Amino acid sequence: MTATTLSTVRKSVLPQAGDTWASIAARELPDMAEADAVSGLQSWNLHVFMRAPAPEGSPRAGNPILPSDVIFIEPPLAAA
Amino acid sequence: MYDLIIRNGTVVDGSGLPGYQADVAVKGNRIARIGKIAETAGKEVDASGKVVAPGFIDPHTHFDAQLLWDGAAKPALSHGVTTIVPGNCSLSLAPLKADHRMRLVGMFNQIEEMPYKAFREGVVWDWETFSEYITRIRKGLAINVAPLVGHSVIRLWVMNDAATERTATDEEIAEMQDVLRECLDAGAAGLSTSYVDMDETLQPVPSRYADAREVDALASVLGEYGRMLQIVPEFYDPDLTIARLDQLAELSIKYQIPTTFSPLFVNSDNVDAVDKVMKRVDEQFARGARVWPQVQTRPIDISFSFAVPSLLFIRFPGWYRVMRFGSPEEIRAHFADPENRKARAEEVAEYKDLWPKLVLRQVKTDANQKYVGKTLAEIAKERGVTPVEAMIDLSVEEDLDAHFLAADMGHNNDDKVVSLLKHPRVHIGASDGGAHILSFSTYGDTGYLFGHFVRDLKTMRLEDAVKKITSDTASIWGIPERGLLQPGYIADIAIFDPETVDRGVERFVQDVPGDGSRYIRDSHGVDTVIVGGGVAWSASDGYQEARGAILPGARDDQPELVAAE
Questions:
Q1: Domains in chain B, start-ordered, CATH in brackets?
Q2: B330, B336 Cβ separation under 8 angstroms
Q3: B26 with B34: CB under 8 angstroms?
Q4: Given a cut of 70, is residue B565 above it in pLDDT?
Q5: In a 3-state reduction of DSSP, which class is residue B92?
Q6: Which residues of B fall below an 8 Å CB-CB distance to A?
Q7: Nearest chain B residue to A76, by CA
Q8: In this predicted model, what pLDDT tens digit does every residue of B240-261 receive, in sequence order?
Q9: Whole-number mean pLDDT of chain B?
Q10: Which structural domain range is residue A56 located in?
Q11: pTM of the entire structure?
């Protein structure tokens, strides 16, 4: 195949083991204050933030992030 | 001497080339000759005025359970579908340990709306491995089956309860790879996974607890066999869909495997969102990836009654909770309470444009028959209530057996949909055949393709439509010797009248084990369906021979070969 340049799409990451909003914020948005970074991540990832909570006692209780989640690390791009 | 000759039809051979007049002769399970045939055969079909095409291939179904009691996947076969792909969305019925059966039944019930009672009364649980499941469904199989194995099921097999608690260890991933190999050796067509589905407790299915390392390891096994990876992305959001298709593209290139994601819908609120996704698909194909979006032909219609937890209410937690977890008595009591009625009406008030358009389809009492066919707006006006109140009242009066239709809920912009269906990098599929049986009919998408887009709107050539659902599908999935009408190919053939082919009116029938019901659509205009050289169904005589095969099937499980002339 010929080399093809992919267009720019919204930046995202996949969680690492044990990731929380705070750990992703610290790793991906180091220049932002933690509270702002966490708040930003949550607002850009409503598909995770608004997820129904895990049952009490579940290993996932208190952290809605799943290992397979796509986590956006920036807001939606402006329409071209 | 031939076994079967189809005479005087227009052969639309699946290549996309113009149709032509010819006879088709079948010997054994293969097409022996196409052209003017002077000889006679033991069986002959007159196809005058009709199209003779390869049998249709439906790449996204959930017939896993139905195949245990119905080897024809009725009524899919009668629509001309000769090959189905079950096991999508991370869910298959094998491999499955005895201890996990009811858990998987719960998932099928939640995700595909297959009733618990159907499993209890329609299924003899006599398998655990994938190979044993294949042996089980082969008996009386009238339709070809290219089964996917579900990632959630493999995870459950290896990790037990931990499948919905954590990521897998290296040892567990290696064991999953071995299990997947066993399934592929037994005839699985690939692996399916899901990033959106929930189990019966409304918690994520096991596949969603897998990290990228696990998916990569399983894709590497698919690479050993060159088989398909299917995923369900977060289809409601184009950015998420693009992120998923980028993941697929990397795996496709790294392991040289075909991948597909389904569904890709045209969103009524943002019809151009699919363009953004398709731009990315085009870019990834240009890199050499194979990331096939599946697009369904039919618009989204949802039928429902208050007796089942309809998809329509999944965005309204108060409604969904009572329908999902309440007994019929509890549901009736809930809606009979004035306070609950008020709360539920307020919960759905934001969607005030939706409810007046709903149509009452079916009731059981004589008193309410006069409302059947009317919209809730019309009924509400006659009764002096709001449309939502009318819906609740009718449901209570009918003992929850009032059926409503929400038509054209999306994917109904014909111009945009047909532009997708014609796109060279779109895979027509996502019928969901055999699933959502209490919300809508998943049968007849091929009839809708020919009737609506080819004949009525004239926005698609007949030959292109046939190609999209036959040879294109066979090529995408690597299904050899099917999808084309040419000598030497397996004789899977659909004969239909292009002037009348269509899907029938949706109707609610009671034909699921355990006195269960489902919505179905009969075929219109389909004359004869041939599978493996035998007449599997005809409009005149119904279901007949059972010559279905497992595709690609285990190496020692291939159909008997008969040489072409």
A1: 2-54+498-553 (2.30.40.10), 56-301+409-496 (3.20.20.140), 302-406 (no CATH)
A2: no
A3: no
A4: no
A5: coil
A6: 165-167, 195, 201-204, 207-212, 215, 234, 237, 239-240, 242-244, 246, 279-280, 283-284, 286-288
A7: B239
A8: 999 999 999 999 999 999 999 9
A9: 93
A10: 17-72
A11: 0.91
